[in-house]
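Write out this protein's structure.
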Amino acid sequence: MARRADRLEALRATLGQHAPSFAYPVDLSNPDHLHEVVQRALRDHGVPDVLVSNAGYGLYRPFAEHTAQDHRTLMEVNYFASVWLISAVLPGMIERGSGHVIGVASISTKMGPWGHTGYSAAKCALVSMIQTLAAEHTGSGVDFSYINPGVVRTDYFEQPSFSTLRDQMRKRWIEPERIAEGVLSLLKRPRLELCIPRHYRVLDWLGAISPALLHRLVRSQSRPKAESRRGPLKRTTPTDT
């Protein structure tokens, strides 16, 4: 399931060379449409063995430049879409006594970076939900996991608001195949959290020792270089994209 039907169909054709594959275009920010599509998929194929909730949408701008619609869309795509998907498939997994729910969150859940107010908050909500589900359903046969990726080379960074950050992030880009490999590793050996790259686990240790130090590190790495050198950037009127 994904938003862009043309890319989704191309992926379905590629995957179809290896196993039966089906494409369901859906607007994840529209709960009514999402519910309709998910119910159709369940009628067509039954309860899935694995749910991977991988949607991601972000904006890179200061809090004062986020509109009310920005915050709503960020929560709808990054958190509520997962809520509705999990709500639809989890009862069947529990009744069957097996299944695996995997949410793709963000390393920003360790410490909120500059310019990611709504995105980081939504991904933190996703992590908290999966942690709670894991606590509530221990022993049910259903596993729960979340992945905290670093900077992944996807169209996420083609969003216009990332133009000031894109170049400085390139040196830390990882390929999306790394996330797919992470999903497979969780299916083979279920565990609650997986950080990609793994060395980001050090952020837990650093946050426990000195949250202030972790904050300074994340802030310096995520601020636009122009702002770091010359002070705050000139603020502009918030606009919807």
